[in-house]
Every structure is written in structure tokens, then in C-alpha cells.
Design a protein that fits this description.
Strand content of chain B: over 45%
Radius of gyration of chain A: 13 Å
Helix content of chain A: under 10%
Structural class of chain B: mainly beta
Order of helices and strands of chain A: EEEEEEEEEEE
Oligomer: heterodimer
Distance between the termini of chain A: 35 Å
Strand content of chain A: over 45%
Structural class of chain A: mainly beta
Number of helices of chain A: 0
Distance between the termini of chain B: 37 Å
Order of helices and strands of chain B: EEEEEEEEEEE
Largest sheet of chain A: 7 strands, mixed
Number of helices of chain B: 0
Shape of chain A: globular
Largest sheet of chain B: 6 strands, mixed
Helix content of chain B: under 10%
Largest interface: A-B, 29 and 28 residues
Shape of chain B: globular
Radius of gyration of chain B: 13 Å
Chain lengths: 112, 111
């Protein structure tokens, strides 16, 4: 089945720790995105990639890093520099601009 | 930056009634999309309307777009309890810019 998979579903981070959220798609999509969602809020763009080996910062990139070494994969690292990382993280992909986006099921990150 | 602003923030209706949600945006767009999110889940695409279209239908969904007022509305007819979810509008600008989402409308349909 084609789709986009995020893992893990739940993640706990200790203070000062880096954690990496996985996002994999088998839809052959060029573009991939990471959004952050806080309770009762909309989606804010963290990073996006239009093509392999290239990515751009979104509105709230500070404290996050990404890589795009393969078309299928776009992992997000939440670094210790992100002071308020507790949120719901959503990964999405689409063929290109002006098309519908497909979302993963999300990763809920909690700082403990 | 959040482009779209949904209204109302929350809406509660009885099963069988129609639900209308509105979205306003600030800059010119190529298309506007509506998505649905069940609690704690990812978003699911509902419908895309292009800037040169005024109205689009998909099953019980009807979307309108008024580019002169920079606004769109989503109408869900004959609502069901299963329609309970948050609904987001998202705008696509020119080129390959990412989708920009609003804050969403929380819809509760009471059986």
C-alpha cells in the first residue's frame, strides 16, 4: 500500500537530548514537509524539501534540523536548542506545488 | 506565517444539520485546499479549488471561493456524528511554495 509513515507514534525526550523523528513515503513524491501542531492550533511549517539533497527553512526552523539523502525519507531532528519541543509533529508529502498533500499519522513528542 | 484564518473556531450542531466553515486569507493564491483532522491523527485531504473556480462539489461537501474577497467556505450537508473533526483550509501560492494552513475549525456533530 502506498502511503507516508511516521515513527514513532509517541516519543519522550529528556532535557538536553536530541531526538529524531522518522518520515518515510513510498508515493514517489518529490516534496516533503514537516509541520508542528500545538494544542488547538494550526500547522506551522518547520522545514521542507522540494528535491533530494535540498531543503529550506520554514517559519519555525530554530532548534530543528533535517536531511534529505533519499527521496523516500525526510527525518527531523529536534535538538536541545529547541526549548519548547512538546508538540504534535506532522510529516507530509506531495508530487509538487499546487497538488494535494498526504500526511502521516503524526508523532507526539513530550519532554520529561 | 499563517495565511488562512478559519471562522468559527468551534461549531456544534445536531446530526442532520448543515455545517458551514469560512476561511479568509491574505495574499494571492493558486488554489485553496480543505483538510480534515480527527483527534490525534494526521490530516486528510478533502477538496482542492483552483483560483479560477468559484464552486466545487464532492459528495456532501460544497466549497466556494471568492478571490475578490480572499475568502472560501466549506459546507457539509446533512452532517453525521462521524463528521466530528477539525477542518483546516490551506493555501497554495505560486511556484512550489509550501501549503500554508489556518488554525482550523473544530466541528462537533451531536447525535
Amino acid at each position: 500500500d502506498g502511503g507516508i509513515t511516521q515513527s514513532p507514534k509517541y516519543l519522550f525526550r529528556k532535557e538536553g537530548q536530541n531526538v529524531t523523528l522518522s518520515c518515510e513515503q513510498n508515493l514517489n513524491h518529490d516534496a516533503m514537509y514537516w509541520y508542528r501542531q500545538d494544542p488547538g492550533q494550526g500547522l506551522r511549517l518547520i522545514y521542507y524539501s522540494q528535491i533530494v539533497n535540498d531543503f529550506q527553512k520554514g517559519d519555525i526552523a530554530e532548534g530543528y534540523s533535517v536531511s534529505r539523502e533519499k527521496k523516500e525519507s525526510f527525518p527531523l531532528t529536534v535538538t536541545s536548542a529547541q526549548k519548547n519541543p512538546t508538540a504534535f509533529y506532522l510529516c507530509a508529502s506531495r508530487t509538487s506545488g499546487n497538488t494535494e498533500a498526504f500526511f502521516g499519522q503524526g508523532t507526539r513528542l513530550t519532554v520529561v | 506565517s499563517q495565511q488562512g484564518e478559519e471562522d468559527p473556531q468551534a461549531l456544534s450542531i445536531q446530526e442532520g444539520e448543515n455545517a458551514t466553515m469560512n476561511c479568509s486569507y491574505k495574499t494571492s493564491i493558486n488554489n485553496l485546499q480543505w483538510y480534515r483532522q480527527n483527534s490525534g491523527r494526521g490530516l486528510v485531504h478533502l477538496i482542492l479549488i483552483r483560483s479560477n473556480e468559484r464552486e466545487k462539489h464532492s459528495g456532501r461537501l460544497r466549497v466556494t471561493l471568492d478571490t475578490s474577497k480572499k475568502s472560501s467556505s466549506l459546507l457539509i450537508t446533512a452532517s453525521r456524528a462521524a463528521d466530528t473533526a477539525s477542518y483546516f483550509c490551506a493555501t497554495d501560492g505560486s511556484g512550489n511554495t509550501p501549503l500554508v494552513f489556518g488554525k482550523g475549525t473544530r466541528l462537533s456533530v451531536i447525535a
